[in-house]
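Is this the right way to post structure tokens for a design question? Let me know if I should format differently. Anyway, here goes:
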């Protein structure tokens, strides 16, 4: 039947609902945040991508991020104990870039911030519901992070349009786009024309040199900032205007019969028991026993502690899987708990054995940055095993509720310890006392931070040092390292307290 034959709607009949057009609710604070997001993106690009090393500039970027969060959310940043702890942790890690100069710690702290800052930021969003001690919280907050980055990109463009002034806003937008396109085309066409005509090239040589020196890098930074700003602002907008509250990944728990876990745990317990019996012969037999087996004492001492740390990680994973997914009833559950307790005890003994051998090795060769970090790693693994024991005694408790604070506190602690100074002091004192016949000066200067200079100044500057470039003196290497520290302090982005103190060392 044609449309003309259809009957008109009855009087009083409900009219179809008008089509809802998606609009963004933009306030004055949102526009302020848009400008702040642009400044933050430029600062982040400048200090992370374009700086030769990471220093106080990266510290400024993290502090500015939290200033924008405080502007966007107000007191919600301090609404919970979890948020306050993560805020303090991230600010201290950011401050470490302005205080120390160890290259390894810079990389690890950056990776830690790339994980902890999104976790903290998304924890402030009303759309996330899972508590921090649930492992699936990571999945929920990861989804919230990427959803926030992309779902509100249009809000950045909506914030550029003044409310109720459509005609003026179109004119402003047209003017801005025209200026941007003109600058972009001039940057492309002027070098092309200069290469096409020698006279034009000579006439614009000074101008092109000036622009290349002062504006080429700045333009690239600003272009990157413009590209990233809509995504950063999208995240702030979604934090202020969250989606419907609710967990993005509802937690589902499944359980398994205890027989499989009993077999697995029993096999591991027997294996480690045999391993510890064999290893005890080396621990108590001494150098004579090892020599009879054709193994030097130093070779035995330096082997195994890294592998033992890895084995402990595997054991911890098996323990948590068994305690989490096993049916908590019947004899199977009792056997699992008994075998899990034995595995925890054996794992602690394995760590103690690894620490014992590390002590033997350090007593001969001294401390290094890697050896100190190994001590720290073994201590952290022991604490995680104790957390697993707590989970074993109280199965309804969450392991992550104890492990996450332990991990954060442990990493915060290792950032507060001057590791390089400890290593340099140990190596120099061993050399001065005659306990060590040589000193790896190149390692202390090149692989560690500027904190080693104060300890190396205790040595004779005329001492001969052999490097990859040939023979030189300690005083020459120290002078070169101080010059590097001065160069690092000459740029505000790369300034840090460790380099500043080294630059002023006589």
């Amino acid at each position: 039947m044609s449309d003309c034959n259809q009957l008109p709607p009855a009087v009083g009949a409900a009219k179809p609902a008008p089509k809802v057009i998606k609009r963004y609710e933009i306030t004055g604070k949102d526009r302020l945040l848009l400008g702040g997001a642009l400044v933050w993106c430029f600062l982040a690009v400048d200090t992370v991508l374009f700086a030769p090393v990471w220093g106080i500039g990266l510290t400024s970027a993290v502090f500015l991020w939290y200033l924008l969060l405080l502007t966007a959310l107000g007191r919600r940043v301090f609404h919970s104990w979890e948020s306050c702890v993560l805020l303090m942790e991230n600010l201290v890690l950011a401050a470490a870039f302005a205080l120390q100069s160890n290259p390894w710690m810079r990389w690890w702290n950056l990776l830690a911030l790339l994980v902890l800052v999104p976790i903290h930021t998304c924890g402030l969003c009303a759309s996330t519901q899972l508590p921090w001690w649930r492992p699936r919280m990571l999945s929920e907050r990861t989804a919230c992070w990427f959803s926030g980055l992309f779902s509100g990109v249009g809000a950045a463009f909506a914030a550029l349009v003044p409310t109720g002034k459509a005609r003026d806003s179109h004119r402003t937008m047209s003017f801005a786009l025209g200026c941007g396109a003109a600058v972009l085309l001039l940057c492309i066409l002027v070098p092309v024309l200069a290469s096409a005509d020698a006279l034009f090239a000579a006439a614009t040589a000074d101008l092109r040199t000036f622009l290349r020196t002062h504006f080429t890098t700045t333009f690239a930074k600003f272009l990157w900032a413009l590209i990233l700003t809509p995504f950063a602002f999208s995240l702030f907008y979604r934090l202020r205007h969250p989606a419907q509250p609710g967990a993005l990944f509802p937690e589902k728990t499944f359980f398994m019969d205890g027989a499989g876990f009993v077999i697995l745990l029993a096999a591991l317990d027997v294996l480690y028991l045999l391993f510890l019996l064999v290893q005890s012969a080396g621990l108590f037999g001494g150098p004579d026993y090892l020599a009879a087996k054709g193994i030097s004492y130093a070779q035995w001492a330096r082997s195994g502690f890294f592998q033992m740390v890895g084995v402990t990680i595997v054991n911890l994973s098996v323990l948590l899987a068994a305690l989490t997914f096993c049916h908590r009833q019947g004899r199977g559950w009792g056997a699992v708990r008994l075998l899990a307790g034995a595995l925890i005890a054996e794992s602690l003994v394995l760590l103690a054995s690894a620490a014992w051998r590390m002590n033997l090795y350090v007593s001969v060769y001294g401390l290094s940055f890697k050896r100190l970090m190994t001590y720290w790693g073994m201590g952290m693994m022991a604490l995680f095993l104790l957390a697993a024991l707590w989970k074993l005694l109280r199965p309804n408790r969450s392991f992550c509720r104890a492990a996450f604070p332990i991990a954060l506190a442990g990493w915060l602690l290792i950032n507060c310890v001057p590791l390089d100074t400890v290593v340099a002091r140990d190596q120099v004192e061993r050399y001065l006392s005659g306990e060590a016949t040589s000193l790896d000066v190149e390692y202390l200067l090149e692989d560690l931070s500027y904190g080693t200079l104060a300890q190396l100044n205790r040595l004779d500057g005329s001492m001969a040092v052999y490097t990859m470039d040939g023979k030189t003196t300690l005083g020459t290497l120290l002078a070169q390292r101080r010059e590097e520290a001065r160069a690092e302090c000459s740029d505000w982005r790369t300034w840090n307290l460790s380099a500043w103190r080294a630059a002023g060392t006589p």
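Format looks fine. Someone answered above. Worth noting: The first helix runs from residue 28 to 49. The beta strands are 464-467, 470-473.
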